[in-house]
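thought: user wants a sequence for this fold. calling inverse folding tool.
action: design(structure=
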C-alpha cells in the first residue's frame, strides 16, 4: 500500500494490510490498541513505548516516521499524571503539545493519517449539559492546557487528522480507578470517601482501542468524543465497581471536592460528560454502556493471580 493512499472501507477493508506506527504502546490504551491490531492479523505494526520513542524528541520522531513510512500513526503517548503536570508544566507541554506537533509533522512528511488521543480536560466543566465536539474549550489545569495545545498543533500541521477526546479511562492495564477501588475494598478502611460533584463518563480502554482502530482504518477526519455510555460521578462509579465485585457498596460515602484531604493541586472540571455527537451524526456505532464493560473488566482483574 502506498503511504497516503486512501484505505478501502467496507467488506474489502479486512483484507487490507495497514502499516501502523503506534506510540505510547506501554500505556493502558496503547497496549489495547496493539493487541487488537495484532489479533486482526491484517496489519504491520511498529509499537513503541516511551522508552523506545520519546515523542518530544523531534529528530527521533521524524526519523521513525520516515523510516517506517506508516499508513497511519496512532498517538496514545501522553503525560497524564494530572496533578504532577501542575508542578512539571514544561514536561507536560513537551510531551502533550510538542510531542503531538512532532508526530503530526512526521505524519505529514510520510503522507500518513494521524489519530491523536485527547481528553475531556480541555473543557472548564461549567456547562449545564454534555459537551459536544464544537463547544468552546477552556481548560482549568496544566494538563488540560497542554492537551489542548496538542489538539491545536495537530489541527494546524495536519488538517485531515483525527482527534479523539475521551474521559475517565479504565481497563486491564495501568493505574486506574477500577483497580484503586478494588484495592481499597480489599484492604482499605471501612468507609471509602469519593467525590460526588465531578461528573463524567467512564471509558474502558479495550472499547476505546476498538474505536481508535476503526477511525484509523476509515481515516475519519475531525474531532470525535469517544466514551462508554452513561454519565456518573466518582462516588457512583466506585459504588458500581464494588457491586460488580460482589462487595459492600454501602461503604462508599459521597463527599464534595472541597472536602478532599489533601486538596488536589490540579482543578478538575465539575462536568466533563462528553456527548458523542460526531459519531452519532455520522451514523457510527457508539461504545456500549459502561456497566457492561465494567463487569467484564472486574471479572478479568479478579481472575489474575
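)
observation: tool returned 305 residues.
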Amino acid at each position: 500500500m502506498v503511504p497516503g493512499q486512501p484505505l478501502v472501507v467496507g467488506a474489502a477493508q479486512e483484507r487490507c494490510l495497514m502499516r501502523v506506527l503506534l506510540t505510547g504502546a506501554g500505556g493502558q490504551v496503547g497496549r489495547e490498541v496493539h493487541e487488537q491490531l495484532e489479533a486482526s492479523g491484517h496489519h504491520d505494526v511498529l509499537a513503541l513505548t516511551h522508552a523506545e520513542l520519546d515523542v518530544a524528541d523531534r529528530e527521533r520522531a521524524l526519523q521513525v516516521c520516515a523510516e517506517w513510512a506508516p499508513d497511519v500513526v496512532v498517538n496514545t503517548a501522553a503525560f497524564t499524571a494530572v496533578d504532577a503536570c501542575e508542578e512539571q508544566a514544561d514536561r507536560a507541554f513537551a510531551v502533550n503539545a510538542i510531542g503531538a506537533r512532532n508526530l503530526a509533522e512526521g505524519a505529514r512528511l510520510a503522507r500518513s493519517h494521524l489519530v491523536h488521543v485527547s481528553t475531556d480536560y480541555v473543557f472548564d466543566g461549567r456547562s449545564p449539559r454534555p459537551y459536544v465536539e464544537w463547544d468552546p474549550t477552556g481548560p482549568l489545569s496544566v494538563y488540560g492546557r497542554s492537551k489542548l495545545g496538542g489538539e491545536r498543533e495537530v489541527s494546524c500541521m495536519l488538517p485531515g487528522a483525527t482527534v479523539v477526546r475521551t474521559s475517565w479511562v479504565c481497563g486491564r492495564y495501568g493505574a486506574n480507578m477500577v483497580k484503586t477501588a478494588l484495592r481499597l475494598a480489599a484492604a482499605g478502611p471501612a468507609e471509602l470517601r469519593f467525590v460526588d460533584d465531578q461528573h463524567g463518563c467512564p471509558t474502558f480502554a479495550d472499547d476505546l482501542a476498538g474505536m481508535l482502530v476503526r477511525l484509523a482504518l476509515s481515516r475519519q477526519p475531525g474531532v470525535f468524543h469517544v466514551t462508554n455510555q452513561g454519565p456518573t460521578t466518582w462516588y457512583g462509579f466506585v459504588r458500581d465497581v464494588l457491586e460488580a465485585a460482589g462487595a459492600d457498596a454501602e461503604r462508599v460515602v459521597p463527599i464534595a471536592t472541597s472536602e478532599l484531604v489533601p486538596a488536589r493541586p490540579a482543578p478538575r472540571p465539575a462536568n466533563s460528560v462528553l456527548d458523542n455527537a460526531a459519531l452519532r451524526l455520522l451514523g457510527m456505532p457508539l461504545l456500549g454502556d459502561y456497566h457492561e464493560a465494567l463487569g467484564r473488566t472486574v471479572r478479568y482483574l479478579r481472575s489474575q493471580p
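thought: summarizing for user.
answer: Here is the designed sequence. Residues 1-14 have pLDDT under 50 and may be disordered.
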